[in-house]
Amino acid sequence: MSLLTQLVDELNAGSLRIVDLTQPLGPDTPVIGLPPMFGQSPGVTMEVISHFDDKGPGWYWNVLHLGEHTGTHFDAPVHWISGKDLPNNSCDTIPVQRFVGPACVIDVSAEVAKNEDFLLMPAHVEAWEKKHGRIPKNSWVLLRTDWSRRTDPKSFLNVGADGPHSPGFHKSTSELLARDREVLGVGVETVGTDAGQAGTFDPPFPNHATMHGAGRFGLASLKNLDQLPATGAIVIAAPLKIVNGSGSPVRVLAITA
Ligand code: 23J
Ligand code: MN
Question: 123 with 129: CB under 8 angstroms?
Fold first, then answer.
């Protein structure tokens, strides 16, 4: 039997299944708030073109208005100044093979339950690799924090007087993953791939700066990472082919045993 026939058979039999890592996308989708001197992402609005009415008696459709980086979304290298001159750095030019890759899931949900500002350190990656083997080149590193269980937008964004608080990566970890492990990118359950407080770090937003400077990607606002094994799942995350797009809402699927 061919590999692809076997894939379809195992999906039909349920010995392989598809896990949806995507949050619902709509007017209630929380969006990141940046400090007030910066431009803001507007959130989702939907306007009905027609709904089986005078404007279209037999059809229903909407106009969508939203930022590229809204809800479960993909970050392309051109999103950041460090990646702006790299080749094939935008949603329409990234080679499509890079939209499919194996997942390494690092579970730090226990640490994050104790510390909202938890940062993944190189030592955490090395401890994970002792158990599960070296992170393969061109894999996604998915940070399981259980942050997606915060279904109330207020606790999901978790903004205090001193700005947002949510977990992320230490700069040295982003460097290890991007430059040494040569990952496709990192995926997180939080609103962005940097920690909530990362605007105050040096450099600001070090995960974005490092990943995108190395031609790596990001996935934000993922869910259902608790349904994935540490290794063995395959992630499919293909952004819309937006010309010069810096990112895109995306339906992220994982195939897992
Ligand atoms: C712009 C500036 C800072 C950040 C972000 C965007 C994101 O998180 C994003 O969605 O890429 S931190
Ligand atoms: Mn983004």
Answer: no
